[in-house]
Amino acid sequence: MILSLFRRKKQDPTIETLYGAIVAQARNPLFYRDHGVSDTVHGRFEMVVLHVFLVLHRLKEESEERRQLGQALFDMLFLDLDRGLRELGVSDTKVPKKIREMGESFYGRVQAYDKALAGGDGESLEASLARNVLADLSADTHVMAAYVRQAAAALAAQPYESFVAGDIAFPAVPPGERHDG
């Protein structure tokens, strides 16, 4: 009985599949090669956060019960971040502080992206992406902002059942100019 408190919960395969699809999209090489995202731990964090945000943005319109899928996705994200930090050699005593910082960053990004999408203000979305995602200041923020708006619209058109099935379809990442930033 007491040992059950120390066992890790087995992750739901749906959440693992959904999270895997998000990470696969976030790691699309075109973001890093053509669109000015830094191919670093920080750049990859920003892209995963952006794509998790897009799914959570879609799920926020669902019922409370259905939004639990978003909570499970959030939990999976931070479990993965914790695991990643440990693999990078961050000490056990520093991991909680790093996770807290990442959580604060996550909530800040979600608030900024949500506000920009809700207001339809292209400039604030572009500014948020330039500040958080794009390492190359010469990158075309219009292209990245257009991708985010297109992804939000594509996800909005998908039925909830596709998310539960772990079947998520992001739009294609447009090829662009090479940015070696």
Please characterize this protein's 3D structure.
The chain is mainly α. It has one domain (13-164). 67% of the residues lie in helices and 0% in strands. It is built from eight helices and no strands. It has helices spanning 13-26, 29-34, 41-59, 64-87, 95-119, 122-132, 141-157, 160-164. Helix 5 (95-119) runs antiparallel to helix 6 (122-132) and helix 6 packs across helix 7. The chain is globular.
Compact description:
The protein has 181 residues and is mainly α.
Sequence-ordered SSE layout with sheet pairings:
Layout: H1 13-26, H2 29-34, H3 41-59, H4 64-87, H5 95-119, H6 122-132, H7 141-157, H8 160-164
Helix pairs in contact: 1-3, 1-4, 3-4, 3-5, 3-7, 4-5, 5-6, 6-7
Tag the structure with descriptive keywords.
single chain, 181 residues, mainly alpha, 8 helices, 0% strand
Helix content: 55-70%
Distance between the termini: 53 Å
The residue ranges in which pLDDT falls below 50 over 5 or more consecutive positions are 1-9
Question: How much strand content do the residues show?
Answer: under 5%
Query: What count of domains describes the coordinates?
Result: 1
Largest pleated sheet = none
Q: What is the count of DSSP helices, taking H or I runs of 4+ residues?
A: 8
What does the overall shape look like? globular
Secondary structure class reads: mainly alpha
